[in-house]
Amino acid sequence: MYILSPSILAADFKELGKEIQTVDKAGAQYIHIDVMDGEFVPSISLGMPVISSVRGTTKKVFDVHLMVDRPERYIQEFVKCGADIITVHAEACTHLDRVIQQIHDAGARAGVALNPATSLTALDYVLDKVDMVLIMTVNPGFGGQKYIPSCTDKIKKLRHIIEDRGLAVDIEVDGGINKDTVHTVLSAGANVIVAGSAVFGEGADEKVREFLEIMSGYGKIQK
Ligand SMILES: O=C(CO)[C@H](O)[C@H](O)COP(=O)(O)O
Ligand SMILES: [Fe+2]
């Protein structure tokens, strides 16, 4: 099933609730929320109070991408403020297996993100324990960057591994996804599409519909 997860990093923060409702009404199934700590990545974005305050604006899935060192410190709090999926970076966790367990114990779905330079082998012993893998298609930390072409092969390889092992793990892609690059990642095997700067701005509702229309050419769209 194909899912669109607009990244609010590119939204107008003074109208955040309305921006979320616009993409919700247009059919986006997830809302992608980027949390940056100024340590794991250079920038600082937003945290729990913002997530709590927009939680009431939509019933859609909050897809929280933690670009945070040692995320085990915050899992329970993010679930409490409304996260439905929590994705942690393999590079930020000393005990990745334990953090995945912690996310599930807190009642959320668990994702693991890999930076462009991180090998798929980081997933060898956890792939059967996660709900989603996030393949970063830019170096994390900022919106509006260019898609890194070497990530395409990684998405393809991961799709083969998931199929070979008979698993039902979603492949999310994040960074530089627009109406051109989305074809590349969909053909490679991604099924959860994050897009920030290609969605928010003028006509966000129309852009969501355009993405969903493209995605429907590859398979069933999740309702
Ligand atoms: O995780 C992220 C950055 O680290 C964002 O989700 C991503 O960059 C989305 O922005 P864009 O679609 O503009 O590239
Ligand atoms: Fe993200």
Automatic annotation (TrEMBL):
Binds 1 divalent metal cation per subunit. Substrate binds at residues 7, 65, 141-144, 174-176, 196-197. Its EC number is 5.1.3.1. The active site is at 34 (proton acceptor), 174 (proton donor). Pathway: Carbohydrate degradation. Keywords: Carbohydrate metabolism, Cobalt, Isomerase, Manganese, Metal-binding, Zinc. GO terms for molecular function: D-ribulose-phosphate 3-epimerase activity; metal ion binding. A divalent metal cation binds at residues 32, 34, 65, 174. GO terms for biological process: pentose catabolic process; pentose-phosphate shunt. It catalyses: D-ribulose 5-phosphate = D-xylulose 5-phosphate. It comes from the Bacteria. It holds the Pfam family Ribul_P_3_epim. GO terms for cellular component: cytoplasm. Its cofactor is Co(2+); a divalent metal cation; Mn(2+); Fe(2+). NCBIfam families: PRK05581.1-4, rpe. Catalyzes the reversible epimerization of D-ribulose 5-phosphate to D-xylulose 5-phosphate. Belongs to the ribulose-phosphate 3-epimerase family. This is Ribulose-phosphate 3-epimerase.
